[in-house]
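Protein entry
_____________
===
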Amino acid sequence: MDPSSSLPAEAPRHLFPGHRTLGNFIFLSRWLQAPLYVGLIIAQCVYVYHFLIELWHLVGKANKITETEIMLTVLGLIDVVMIANLLIMVIVGGYETFVSRLHLDKHPDQPEWLSHVNAGILKVKLATALIGISSIHLLKTFIEAERMESSVMMWQVIIHLAFVLSALLLAYIDRLTSIAPVKHK
């Protein structure tokens, strides 16, 4: 039996003898990313620990702090939650996109966005999450404006606007690349 006869019809028959082995090895290399996602899960555990410590401090000194201090602490907690959300998007979306399917089709808790995630959509979601995190930091800066140097506030606004512009450009590029080309007759 001819070894090339087991190749799909569209596969070139002139490839060198070990091409399938090399291809399988390259495809298998995607699993090298799995420990990276496990590392991000561990980092998320650190964020949960940090969140609980900050929440405990907030509750413990609730009678002694001002409304502004409460607001700043809560904004810090929201910041931790948004970073944790960002981590989940990278872990789940990245694993599903680049490593292996999660097979969550019938799972009641499957995130809606996961069913249509790809690298472009993931980039846009990450960029918008970064804008949310940057917005929290900017709000904290404005609350503490009397203690901040104007040049620091200016740079934070510029950096935030750069995040916004980047997200808009990523969304625009993703939209351009996802539009099916029109076939001319």
Notes: The CA atoms of residues 129 and 164 lie 10 Å apart. Residues 67-99 form the longest helix (33 residues). The chain has a mean pLDDT of 82.
